[in-house]
Protein backbone atom coordinates (compact mmCIF):
# COMPACT_ATOMS: atom_id res chain seq x y z
CA UNK A 1 0.00 0.00 0.00
CA UNK A 2 1.42 3.39 -0.97
CA UNK A 3 0.96 6.04 1.73
CA UNK A 4 0.96 9.80 1.54
CA UNK A 5 2.41 12.01 4.26
CA UNK A 6 0.37 11.64 7.45
CA UNK A 7 -1.51 8.50 6.39
CA UNK A 8 -1.33 5.22 8.31
CA UNK A 9 -2.02 1.55 7.78
CA UNK A 10 -2.56 -1.38 10.19
CA UNK A 11 0.27 -3.90 10.44
CA UNK A 12 -0.92 -7.49 10.10
CA UNK A 13 2.24 -8.82 11.74
CA UNK A 14 4.39 -7.71 14.67
CA UNK A 15 7.64 -8.85 13.03
CA UNK A 16 8.40 -6.03 10.59
CA UNK A 17 11.30 -4.35 8.86
CA UNK A 18 11.38 -0.65 7.98
CA UNK A 19 13.76 0.02 5.09
CA UNK A 20 15.19 3.43 4.25
CA UNK A 21 16.18 3.47 0.57
CA UNK A 22 17.92 6.25 -1.35
CA UNK A 23 20.01 6.47 -4.50
CA UNK A 24 23.78 6.78 -4.15
CA UNK A 25 25.29 9.46 -6.38
CA UNK A 26 28.54 11.48 -6.28
CA UNK A 27 28.17 14.33 -3.84
CA UNK A 28 25.11 12.88 -2.14
CA UNK A 29 25.08 13.64 1.61
CA UNK A 30 25.99 10.73 3.85
CA UNK A 31 22.98 9.40 5.75
CA UNK A 32 22.07 6.67 8.19
CA UNK A 33 18.89 5.43 9.82
CA UNK A 34 17.98 5.22 13.51
CA UNK A 35 15.03 4.34 15.71
CA UNK A 36 13.83 6.01 18.91
CA UNK A 37 11.48 4.31 21.38
CA UNK A 38 8.77 6.55 22.86
CA UNK A 39 6.43 6.36 25.83
CA UNK A 40 3.26 8.41 25.30
CA UNK A 41 5.00 10.51 22.66
CA UNK A 42 8.15 11.27 24.67
CA UNK A 43 11.58 9.64 24.76
CA UNK A 44 12.83 8.34 28.09
CA UNK A 45 16.48 8.98 27.34
CA UNK A 46 19.35 8.41 24.87
CA UNK A 47 19.56 4.73 25.77
CA UNK A 48 16.34 4.26 23.77
CA UNK A 49 18.15 5.35 20.59
CA UNK A 50 19.03 2.51 18.20
CA UNK A 51 21.43 3.24 15.35
CA UNK A 52 24.85 2.38 13.94
CA UNK A 53 26.56 3.23 17.23
CA UNK A 54 24.09 1.16 19.25
CA UNK A 55 22.61 -1.32 16.76
CA UNK A 56 20.51 -3.28 19.24
CA UNK A 57 18.16 -1.99 21.93
CA UNK A 58 18.74 -3.44 25.43
CA UNK A 59 15.27 -5.03 25.26
CA UNK A 60 16.35 -6.86 22.08
CA UNK A 61 13.22 -5.97 20.11
CA UNK A 62 14.72 -3.25 17.87
CA UNK A 63 17.81 -3.73 15.69
CA UNK A 64 19.53 -1.49 13.16
CA UNK A 65 21.04 -3.10 10.07
CA UNK A 66 23.05 -0.68 7.93
CA UNK A 67 25.24 -0.71 4.85
CA UNK A 68 23.48 -2.75 2.15
CA UNK A 69 23.65 -1.46 -1.44
CA UNK A 70 21.64 -2.83 -4.35
CA UNK A 71 22.10 -1.47 -7.88
CA UNK A 72 23.21 1.98 -6.75
CA UNK A 73 20.55 2.16 -4.05
CA UNK A 74 21.62 2.29 -0.40
CA UNK A 75 19.38 0.39 2.00
CA UNK A 76 19.40 0.70 5.80
CA UNK A 77 16.94 -1.38 7.79
CA UNK A 78 15.35 -1.18 11.23
CA UNK A 79 14.05 -4.60 12.29
CA UNK A 80 11.30 -4.56 14.92
CA UNK A 81 9.80 -7.29 17.04
CA UNK A 82 6.82 -5.21 18.10
CA UNK A 83 5.42 -7.95 20.32
CA UNK A 84 8.70 -8.03 22.23
CA UNK A 85 8.77 -4.32 23.10
CA UNK A 86 8.34 -3.33 26.76
CA UNK A 87 4.67 -2.78 27.55
CA UNK A 88 5.21 0.90 28.34
CA UNK A 89 6.61 1.66 24.87
CA UNK A 90 3.78 3.09 22.79
CA UNK A 91 5.61 3.87 19.55
CA UNK A 92 8.91 3.58 17.68
CA UNK A 93 9.98 6.50 15.48
CA UNK A 94 12.27 5.70 12.54
CA UNK A 95 14.38 8.65 11.38
CA UNK A 96 17.43 9.43 9.27
CA UNK A 97 20.43 11.60 10.08
CA UNK A 98 22.46 13.41 7.44
CA UNK A 99 25.96 14.82 7.09
CA UNK A 100 27.41 16.95 4.29
CA UNK A 101 24.14 18.37 3.02
CA UNK A 102 20.37 18.57 3.47
CA UNK A 103 17.85 15.84 2.74
CA UNK A 104 16.64 17.72 -0.33
CA UNK A 105 19.97 16.62 -1.85
CA UNK A 106 19.31 12.94 -1.17
CA UNK A 107 17.67 11.51 -4.31
CA UNK A 108 14.85 8.95 -4.49
CA UNK A 109 14.21 8.59 -0.75
CA UNK A 110 11.71 5.85 -0.03
CA UNK A 111 10.46 3.99 3.02
CA UNK A 112 9.41 0.37 2.59
CA UNK A 113 7.78 -1.70 5.35
CA UNK A 114 7.85 -5.48 5.03
CA UNK A 115 6.93 -8.51 7.08
CA UNK A 116 9.20 -11.37 8.09
CA UNK A 117 8.35 -13.14 4.81
CA UNK A 118 9.47 -10.12 2.78
CA UNK A 119 5.93 -9.21 1.71
CA UNK A 120 5.46 -5.46 1.39
CA UNK A 121 3.06 -3.96 3.94
CA UNK A 122 3.47 -0.28 3.04
CA UNK A 123 5.66 2.17 1.18
CA UNK A 124 6.14 5.90 1.34
CA UNK A 125 8.02 8.06 -1.18
CA UNK A 126 9.66 10.98 0.62
CA UNK A 127 9.62 13.65 -2.06
CA UNK A 128 9.16 16.84 -0.04
CA UNK A 129 12.39 17.13 1.94
CA UNK A 130 14.05 20.54 2.27
CA UNK A 131 16.91 21.95 4.33
CA UNK A 132 16.57 19.32 7.06
CA UNK A 133 19.54 17.35 8.40
CA UNK A 134 17.37 15.06 10.52
CA UNK A 135 14.25 13.55 8.97
CA UNK A 136 11.49 11.47 10.58
CA UNK A 137 10.53 8.81 8.04
CA UNK A 138 7.73 6.96 9.81
CA UNK A 139 6.37 5.63 13.06
CA UNK A 140 5.09 2.27 14.30
CA UNK A 141 2.59 2.81 17.10
CA UNK A 142 0.11 0.88 19.24
CA UNK A 143 -3.56 1.18 18.45
CA UNK A 144 -6.51 -0.75 19.92
CA UNK A 145 -4.48 -3.83 20.81
CA UNK A 146 -2.56 -3.84 17.52
CA UNK A 147 0.11 -1.87 15.68
CA UNK A 148 0.00 0.62 12.83
CA UNK A 149 2.58 2.34 10.64
CA UNK A 150 2.31 6.06 9.84
CA UNK A 151 4.20 7.92 7.10
CA UNK A 152 5.54 11.04 8.83
CA UNK A 153 7.91 12.87 6.47
CA UNK A 154 8.90 15.67 8.88
CA UNK A 155 12.41 17.10 9.02
CA UNK A 156 14.45 19.33 11.31
CA UNK A 157 16.89 21.89 9.91
CA UNK A 158 18.47 22.01 13.37
CA UNK A 159 19.39 18.32 13.07
CA UNK A 160 18.96 15.78 15.81
CA UNK A 161 18.95 18.60 18.37
CA UNK A 162 15.62 19.79 17.00
CA UNK A 163 14.34 16.24 16.74
CA UNK A 164 15.39 15.54 20.34
CA UNK A 165 13.52 18.62 21.57
CA UNK A 166 10.37 17.52 19.72
CA UNK A 167 10.39 14.28 21.72
CA UNK A 168 11.21 15.76 25.11
CA UNK A 169 15.00 15.39 25.25
CA UNK A 170 17.73 17.97 25.66
CA UNK A 171 19.29 18.89 22.27
CA UNK A 172 22.63 17.20 23.03
CA UNK A 173 21.14 13.89 24.10
CA UNK A 174 20.83 12.50 20.58
CA UNK A 175 24.12 12.50 18.63
CA UNK A 176 24.48 13.86 15.12
CA UNK A 177 25.82 11.56 12.41
CA UNK A 178 29.53 11.21 13.33
CA UNK A 179 32.07 12.69 10.96
CA UNK A 180 33.38 10.30 8.32
CA UNK A 181 36.71 8.71 9.14
CA UNK A 182 39.63 10.04 7.03
CA UNK A 183 40.71 7.80 4.13
CA UNK A 184 43.44 5.31 4.91
CA UNK A 185 45.48 2.95 2.77
CA UNK A 186 45.15 0.20 5.32
CA UNK A 187 42.96 -0.32 8.36
CA UNK A 188 44.57 0.65 11.67
CA UNK A 189 46.09 -2.16 13.66
CA UNK A 190 43.93 -1.34 16.66
CA UNK A 191 41.35 1.29 17.47
CA UNK A 192 42.69 4.41 19.11
CA UNK A 193 41.79 4.33 22.79
CA UNK A 194 39.71 7.29 24.00
CA UNK A 195 40.12 9.40 20.82
CA UNK A 196 38.06 6.94 18.76
CA UNK A 197 34.93 8.50 20.20
CA UNK A 198 35.39 11.55 17.98
CA UNK A 199 35.30 9.59 14.72
CA UNK A 200 33.07 6.61 15.49
CA UNK A 201 29.67 6.54 17.16
CA UNK A 202 29.62 5.44 20.76
CA UNK A 203 26.90 3.71 22.67
CA UNK A 204 24.66 6.47 24.07
CA UNK A 205 25.12 6.84 27.81
CA UNK A 206 22.05 5.59 29.70
CA UNK A 207 20.08 8.33 31.37
CA UNK A 208 20.66 6.71 34.75
CA UNK A 209 24.40 7.19 34.32
CA UNK A 210 24.13 10.99 34.25
CA UNK A 211 21.34 11.86 36.69
CA UNK A 212 22.80 15.25 37.66
CA UNK A 213 22.90 16.44 34.05
CA UNK A 214 19.36 15.35 33.29
CA UNK A 215 17.96 16.88 36.47
CA UNK A 216 19.74 20.15 35.69
CA UNK A 217 18.42 20.19 32.13
CA UNK A 218 14.85 19.32 32.98
CA UNK A 219 14.07 20.49 36.48
CA UNK A 220 16.79 22.80 37.73
CA UNK A 221 17.75 21.90 41.29
CA UNK A 222 14.57 19.90 41.94
CA UNK A 223 15.03 16.33 43.09
CA UNK A 224 11.80 15.10 41.51
CA UNK A 225 9.63 16.02 38.51
CA UNK A 226 7.30 18.98 39.03
CA UNK A 227 3.70 18.26 39.91
CA UNK A 228 1.10 18.12 37.19
CA UNK A 229 -1.23 21.11 36.85
CA UNK A 230 -4.90 20.34 36.16
CA UNK A 231 -7.02 23.17 34.79
CA UNK A 232 -10.66 23.44 35.89
CA UNK A 233 -13.54 25.89 35.54
CA UNK A 234 -12.55 27.37 38.90
CA UNK A 235 -8.83 27.58 37.97
CA UNK A 236 -8.80 27.78 34.16
CA UNK A 237 -5.38 29.37 33.48
CA UNK A 238 -1.71 28.74 34.19
CA UNK A 239 1.54 30.41 33.22
CA UNK A 240 3.87 28.00 31.46
CA UNK A 241 6.72 30.38 32.11
CA UNK A 242 6.15 30.37 35.87
CA UNK A 243 5.94 26.57 35.75
CA UNK A 244 9.37 26.40 34.10
CA UNK A 245 8.20 25.92 30.50
CA UNK A 246 10.42 28.60 28.97
CA UNK A 247 12.19 26.74 26.16
CA UNK A 248 12.35 23.52 24.19
CA UNK A 249 9.29 21.74 22.85
CA UNK A 250 5.70 21.86 24.09
CA UNK A 251 3.86 18.70 23.07
CA UNK A 252 0.06 18.83 23.01
CA UNK A 253 -1.85 15.53 23.05
CA UNK A 254 -5.55 14.90 22.55
CA UNK A 255 -6.97 11.59 23.73
CA UNK A 256 -10.47 10.19 23.43
CA UNK A 257 -12.53 7.00 23.58
CA UNK A 258 -14.80 5.47 20.96
CA UNK A 259 -18.41 6.63 21.41
CA UNK A 260 -21.17 4.33 22.51
CA UNK A 261 -24.94 4.46 22.12
CA UNK A 262 -27.03 6.70 19.89
CA UNK A 263 -24.23 9.18 19.14
CA UNK A 264 -21.95 6.58 17.56
CA UNK A 265 -21.72 6.14 13.80
CA UNK A 266 -18.86 3.66 13.61
CA UNK A 267 -16.17 2.08 15.76
CA UNK A 268 -13.47 4.32 14.25
CA UNK A 269 -13.68 8.01 15.08
CA UNK A 270 -11.41 10.45 13.25
CA UNK A 271 -10.78 13.58 15.32
CA UNK A 272 -8.47 16.28 13.95
CA UNK A 273 -6.34 18.31 16.36
CA UNK A 274 -5.78 21.78 14.90
CA UNK A 275 -4.31 25.15 15.83
CA UNK A 276 -5.10 28.68 14.74
CA UNK A 277 -2.04 30.89 15.13
CA UNK A 278 -1.29 34.58 15.12
CA UNK A 279 2.38 35.50 15.17
CA UNK A 280 3.97 38.67 16.49
CA UNK A 281 4.56 39.93 12.94
CA UNK A 282 0.80 39.83 12.36
CA UNK A 283 0.73 36.73 10.15
CA UNK A 284 -2.12 34.30 10.76
CA UNK A 285 -2.99 30.79 9.66
CA UNK A 286 -3.99 27.28 10.65
CA UNK A 287 -2.16 24.01 11.31
CA UNK A 288 -4.34 21.01 10.47
CA UNK A 289 -4.40 17.75 8.53
CA UNK A 290 -7.03 19.11 6.13
CA UNK A 291 -5.17 20.39 3.10
CA UNK A 292 -1.87 18.99 4.41
CA UNK A 293 -1.12 22.11 6.50
CA UNK A 294 1.09 20.23 8.99
CA UNK A 295 3.25 23.26 9.84
CA UNK A 296 6.91 23.33 10.85
CA UNK A 297 8.97 23.66 14.03
CA UNK A 298 12.06 25.29 12.54
CA UNK A 299 10.27 28.03 10.59
CA UNK A 300 6.95 29.88 10.88
CA UNK A 301 4.54 29.02 12.33
CA UNK A 302 6.86 27.08 14.70
CA UNK A 303 4.02 24.59 15.25
CA UNK A 304 4.02 21.04 13.91
CA UNK A 305 1.22 18.49 13.60
CA UNK A 306 2.78 15.02 13.78
CA UNK A 307 0.36 13.51 11.27
CA UNK A 308 -3.23 12.63 10.59
CA UNK A 309 -4.32 9.66 12.69
CA UNK A 310 -7.49 8.36 11.05
CA UNK A 311 -7.94 5.30 13.27
CA UNK A 312 -9.22 7.16 16.32
CA UNK A 313 -9.12 6.14 19.95
CA UNK A 314 -5.61 7.12 21.02
CA UNK A 315 -5.13 10.71 19.99
CA UNK A 316 -3.15 13.16 17.89
CA UNK A 317 -0.20 15.36 18.78
CA UNK A 318 0.92 18.93 18.09
CA UNK A 319 4.31 20.38 19.02
CA UNK A 320 5.11 24.04 19.63
CA UNK A 321 8.66 25.39 19.56
CA UNK A 322 8.98 27.33 22.85
CA UNK A 323 12.43 28.53 21.80
CA UNK A 324 10.46 30.85 19.50
CA UNK A 325 7.92 31.93 22.11
CA UNK A 326 8.58 35.59 21.23
CA UNK A 327 7.18 34.84 17.77
CA UNK A 328 3.75 33.88 19.15
CA UNK A 329 0.97 36.35 19.84
CA UNK A 330 -1.77 33.78 20.40
CA UNK A 331 -2.49 30.14 19.52
CA UNK A 332 -5.93 28.53 19.72
CA UNK A 333 -5.97 24.76 19.99
CA UNK A 334 -9.18 23.19 18.73
CA UNK A 335 -10.51 19.84 17.54
CA UNK A 336 -12.97 18.86 14.85
CA UNK A 337 -14.81 15.61 14.16
CA UNK A 338 -13.89 14.54 10.62
CA UNK A 339 -15.91 11.33 10.63
CA UNK A 340 -17.22 8.52 12.85
CA UNK A 341 -19.37 10.54 15.29
CA UNK A 342 -21.91 13.34 15.07
CA UNK A 343 -20.99 14.89 18.42
CA UNK A 344 -18.37 14.87 21.16
CA UNK A 345 -20.87 13.22 23.50
CA UNK A 346 -19.43 10.02 24.94
CA UNK A 347 -15.89 10.58 23.65
CA UNK A 348 -14.49 11.45 27.13
CA UNK A 349 -11.77 13.59 25.58
CA UNK A 350 -8.82 15.01 27.50
CA UNK A 351 -5.97 17.37 26.64
CA UNK A 352 -2.40 17.25 27.94
CA UNK A 353 0.33 19.84 27.37
CA UNK A 354 3.81 18.49 28.13
CA UNK A 355 6.55 21.14 28.10
CA UNK A 356 10.11 19.89 27.79
CA UNK A 357 10.88 21.79 30.98
CA UNK A 358 8.42 22.28 33.82
CA UNK A 359 5.15 20.75 34.88
CA UNK A 360 2.68 19.09 32.48
CA UNK A 361 -0.75 20.70 32.21
CA UNK A 362 -3.95 18.76 31.56
CA UNK A 363 -7.71 19.07 31.62
CA UNK A 364 -10.77 17.11 30.59
CA UNK A 365 -13.59 18.35 28.39
CA UNK A 366 -17.01 18.88 29.89
CA UNK A 367 -19.81 16.52 28.91
CA UNK A 368 -21.17 17.55 25.51
CA UNK A 369 -24.92 18.12 25.49
CA UNK A 370 -25.23 19.81 22.07
CA UNK A 371 -24.85 18.60 18.50
CA UNK A 372 -21.30 19.94 18.20
CA UNK A 373 -18.55 18.77 15.84
CA UNK A 374 -15.95 21.40 16.80
CA UNK A 375 -14.55 22.28 20.20
CA UNK A 376 -12.17 25.08 21.22
CA UNK A 377 -9.71 23.41 23.61
CA UNK A 378 -7.24 25.98 24.92
CA UNK A 379 -5.97 29.46 24.13
CA UNK A 380 -2.26 30.20 24.52
CA UNK A 381 -1.55 33.92 24.83
CA UNK A 382 1.81 35.66 25.20
CA UNK A 383 1.69 38.32 27.89
CA UNK A 384 5.06 40.07 27.83
CA UNK A 385 7.57 37.26 28.20
CA UNK A 386 4.95 35.04 29.79
CA UNK A 387 3.03 32.32 27.90
CA UNK A 388 -0.35 31.69 29.53
CA UNK A 389 -2.55 28.65 28.84
CA UNK A 390 -6.28 29.19 29.27
CA UNK A 391 -8.70 26.27 29.31
CA UNK A 392 -11.60 26.86 26.92
CA UNK A 393 -13.38 23.46 26.60
CA UNK A 394 -16.02 25.25 24.50
CA UNK A 395 -18.31 23.27 22.23
CA UNK A 396 -19.44 25.17 19.15
CA UNK A 397 -22.40 24.42 16.85
CA UNK A 398 -21.82 25.46 13.22
CA UNK A 399 -24.60 27.21 11.35
CA UNK A 400 -25.93 25.46 8.26
CA UNK A 401 -23.36 25.63 5.46
CA UNK A 402 -20.57 26.89 7.73
CA UNK A 403 -17.54 24.67 8.26
CA UNK A 404 -16.20 23.79 11.74
CA UNK A 405 -12.99 25.73 11.00
CA UNK A 406 -14.85 28.85 9.96
CA UNK A 407 -17.08 28.49 13.04
CA UNK A 408 -14.15 28.56 15.46
CA UNK A 409 -12.60 31.43 13.47
CA UNK A 410 -15.80 33.48 13.87
CA UNK A 411 -15.98 32.69 17.59
CA UNK A 412 -12.45 33.95 18.27
CA UNK A 413 -12.15 36.67 15.63
CA UNK A 414 -9.23 35.27 13.62
CA UNK A 415 -10.44 36.64 10.27
CA UNK A 416 -8.97 34.07 7.87
CA UNK A 417 -10.17 33.49 4.31
CA UNK A 418 -11.30 29.86 4.12
CA UNK A 419 -11.54 27.64 1.04
CA UNK A 420 -12.84 24.04 0.76
CA UNK A 421 -10.22 21.38 1.50
CA UNK A 422 -9.87 17.64 1.80
CA UNK A 423 -7.58 15.01 3.27
From TrEMBL:
<dbReference type="InterPro" id="IPR051324">
    <property type="entry name" value="Stress/Tellurium_Resist"/>
</dbReference>
<feature type="compositionally biased region" description="Pro residues">
    <location>
        <begin position="180"/>
        <end position="194"/>
    </location>
</feature>
<protein>
    <submittedName>
        <fullName>TerD family protein</fullName>
    </submittedName>
</protein>
<dbReference type="InterPro" id="IPR017115">
    <property type="entry name" value="Tellurite_resistance_TerA"/>
</dbReference>
<feature type="region of interest" description="Disordered">
    <location>
        <begin position="178"/>
        <end position="209"/>
    </location>
</feature>
<comment type="similarity">
    <text>Belongs to the CAPAB/TerDEXZ family.</text>
</comment>
<dbReference type="InterPro" id="IPR003325">
    <property type="entry name" value="TerD"/>
</dbReference>
<dbReference type="Pfam" id="PF02342">
    <property type="entry name" value="TerD"/>
</dbReference>
<feature type="compositionally biased region" description="Low complexity">
    <location>
        <begin position="195"/>
        <end position="209"/>
    </location>
</feature>
<feature type="domain" description="TerD">
    <location>
        <begin position="1"/>
        <end position="167"/>
    </location>
</feature>
